[in-house]
Write a structure and sequence with these properties.
Number of domains: 1
Order of helices and strands: EEEHHEEEHE
Number of strands: 7
Number of helices: 3
CATH architecture: 2-Layer Sandwich
Strand content: 35-45%
Strand order of the largest sheet: 1-2-3-7
Radius of gyration: 12 Å
CATH class: Alpha Beta
Distance between the termini: 25 Å
Amino acid sequence: MSTLVDRAASANYEGGFIVVRMESGVEIRFPVSGNARLAGGTPEQLNNIELSPYGLHWPDLDEDLSFQGLLAGDYGQFAGTHVSRCR
């Protein structure tokens, strides 16, 4: 079992994407259109993100995504696009 050593500093909705900024400066971003529950959310709902050491939770949309899944390219119920990581 691997352990994530970097921690999420912030997460928000920006121009059709969820952007997670890690303490190391790495960004993880993915389009909300790639996730059925997120795709129907309002900007306010999409910005209401709870961070945990394990992932992201949208209480208004009843959606949870793990960092392990995001880094593996799994960010929801629609397939076909990939996570991009930026520094």
